[in-house]
Every structure is written in structure tokens, then in C-alpha cells.
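During the reporting period the student researcher (J.K.) took over the structure-prediction task from the postdoctoral fellow and processed the backlog of single-chain submissions. One of the processed entries is reproduced below for the supervisory committee.
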Amino acid sequence: KNVVIFGETGSGKSSIINVIAQKQVAKTSNDAPGCTPESKRYSVDISGQKFSLFDTAGLNEGSAGTVPHKQAKKQLKSLLNKLMSHKSPSDGIDLLVYCVRYTTAPRPILDTYNTVYSGTCRKKRVPIVVVVTGLESETPMESWWDSHKEIFNTMDLAGHACVTTIQEYPGIPEDLTRRVEQSSKILHDLIMNKCSASAVDDSLPAGMRCWSPLWSMG
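J.K. obtained the following C-alpha cells:
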């Protein structure tokens, strides 16, 4: 199953992969410029199932960044088109993961969603979920969504997750360790559920439901 992770530079895409894998497999950086210059594929096992996680270059990075926005958008579009060409059984997109830093302003969130999800992905009904990162200080992490969910009202989402992608370190407080473990489980469950079942969340307003996702891109 193929999972494509995208979002703005610094939103935590590479860190999400490490949390899912429960080990350091993707390079991360705390610096402003992105650390993923091109799309990279990582094979991860979740509950005995094999998944291919595609890390992508950060969007909305300035011209002085690692990958300028125009080039990053072109790379992402090329990856999506390649996977959806369905030239082999391993092709297709089973899930899009939109990574959003909790401090991102509403307008860029919607603009990036429309840029990536419009066109072929929407027509194919590829399921898309939002993962909000940087919530290690939020108690509980899900409370961020309760306060900000109106930002996503116009999006056809299959689901969401509120997590921390902080890396464990010597002397890390016990409560942070629990949040990292909780985030890993939340992401595992999100991917398993939205890749393997009809992605309809009846608790969401109609505009936020993804009614007929096409798991096979043929």
C-alpha cells in the first residue's frame, strides 16, 4: 500500500515517518530550510502489513530554500501522476497524508490542500487525512482539533490525527515519552483504518467526508 506524505516545509513530514517506523529512518532537521530535497520511499511494517511511505519536498519554501516552492510542487505532482498511472500492481495511492504544523495560518492550509488535492486526486477519490504536528504541549493533543476544526470544514477529509513528532532523547520527561508512544499508535491506527476500509467519518460535517475513495487507481 502506498502512502504519500506532503505539507509545507517544517511541518514534520519526515518526523512523521520516523514516528510511524518507531525508529530513525528519515533525515530530519530543525533548521528552517527543508531537509527533503526530493521524494523518498520508505518501507514500513505496520501490524504485519507492508506500507510504502513517500516523503516529499516541503511546499511553500522560499527561493533561497533547499527546494523552491515551484520545484517542490512540480516534484509532488510528478510523483502523484506516476503512482496513479497504475502501470503495475504496486502502483496507485492508498492514502494522502497532509502534514500541518499547529502554528500554520488557516489560508495557507487551505491553499496547499487545494493545490495538491484538486484535479486527478479528487476525481479518483483518493482518501486524504490531516495530521497536525507539534502538539507535545497540548493537553490533550486532540483538544487542538476541537478548537480549530472549522479551518477544515470545506475539505473532504477521511480523518485526522493530532500528534507530536518530537524525538526521544536522554532524560526526556515521562509524559513526553507517553505522548510519543501515543502518537505512534494514533498514526498506525489512522493509516491502517483509512487504507483498508471505506473512509467515511460520520462524525464530520458533510463537507469533510470522503464518501467513495478509490483504493485501486485503475
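The committee noted the following: The beta strands are 2-7, 40-46, 49-55, 95-101, 128-133, 159-162.
J.K. will present the remaining backlog at the next meeting.
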